[in-house]
Amino acid sequence: MPSRKLEFTAAAYYKASSLPAEVFAAFEQNPVTFNCMLPHILKCLKLEEHGRVIDGQCWIVVTTYNPEPRVDFVLSCTENEMGKYPIFIASTSPPPSLSDEFVRPRLHLIVEHLLDIVDLYRVYSVFAPDAVAYWFAQLWTEQTGIRCYDNPYYAAKLSVCCSKTFKYRSVTISPGLEYNLRPAVEADLHAVAELCYGFAQESEPFVLDAQGAVREASILIQNATVWIHEVRWPNKAPMVASLVAFTRNSATVSTITKVYTNPGARGMGCAQRLVRRVCKHLFSTERKEKVALYVAHNNLAASKVYHRVGFTGLDPENSTPSPEVESWTEIGFDRAKVELGHW
Questions:
Q1: Domain ranges, ordered by start, for the chain
Q2: Torsion 300-304-307-309 (CA) sign
Q3: Which pairing describes strands 290-296 and 253-256: parallel, antiparallel, or unpaired?
Q4: Does the domain at residues 178-288 carry the CATH identifier 3.30.379.10?
Q5: Using an 8 Å Cβ cutoff, are 58 and 280 in contact?
Q6: DSSP letters of 159-182?
Q7: In Å, how far are 168, 203, 212, 257, 323 from 154, measured between CA atoms?
């Protein structure tokens, strides 16, 4: 007996408050997978509650009816104070189950809707689970003629730390050095901006000029989403050695979005010390259930740091894939035909 063909549809939404209940249910069940979307949607909801609707926000939802609605994919095309985000796509289905037969027709429908909504230059990159990113890039190129780059902008693992995996340790002290790990304040603006600038310079093509770095640092400090690690040598002024930012926050999950150490302070364990302290803050003070982060496949040094803190699936001595770790890819499109945003 042949299997019954399930019907799926796509719909676009321009206000967070107009998203259907099943979408929020999917977010609640998969807050880590949807970490690139849910925190921004929550911000939009708060503004909409006060009568403010932000232009430039769009979500496309693919739903299968069996007969009850089940959300398959959500695409976001949104922006914040720093600029336009990439196209984000996430699925309620775990990556191993994302077969070509499942993904291709649904993404084809998404692409058709997106073509009716945005200018072609708006789609400068897509960030999604590997198979989803590659299928979207192929379909978008087929429909628009705008080629995608062979080498991804970013290829990373999405790893998670929870209270059970978190490795509590006392702060290690180096003789002659004083450490201070704390939230950044306005007086730290220029020091934080310098680290934001350095991080962006190593994140081609999403570089910042000095003014953009100051703006980003100001937003991070105002939103209380950045901590710093100060180091002080004897008879010298303290130096901000590292920063950790966690800019995507929902009720149960925070995502660390920026970890950077001043090149002059590397090799001192600052990043590990600060990531651990921030995780402790998020678990004990903010009452988060999980902390997520992306780490590039080829960044073995960072993977070791995060593994020591308690992030799963990053053990350099264990190559067995972890079911909790997803692999995501950002694919860029011809920069001669698009306008880059920032994230």
A1: 7-155, 178-288
A2: negative
A3: parallel
A4: no
A5: no
A6: EEEETTT----PPP--TT-EEEEE
A7: 30, 9, 21, 13, 21
Could you read off the pLDDT of 58-84 as tens digits, one per residue? 999 999 998 889 999 999 999 999 999
Which residues is 11 bridged to in the sheet? 61
Answer whether residue 307 shows pLDDT above 80: yes
Task: State the burial class of residue 264 (Cβ atoms within 10 Å of its Cβ: 0-12, 13-18, 19+).
Answer: exposed
- CATH 3.40.1130 for domain 7-155, yes or no, is no
Question: Contact at 8 Å (CB) between 289 and 252?
Answer: yes
> Looking at residue 6, what DSSP letter applies?
P
How many residues does the structure list for the chain?
343
pLDDT at residue number 234:
83
CA distance readout (Å), 252 to 24, 38, 114: 14, 11, 30
Give percent of the chain with pLDDT exceeding 70.
Answer: 97
Q: Tell me the C-alpha distance between 279 and 244, whole Å.
A: 10
Residues 296 and 155: their CA atoms lie apart, in Å, by 6
Tokens of 229: 């690690």
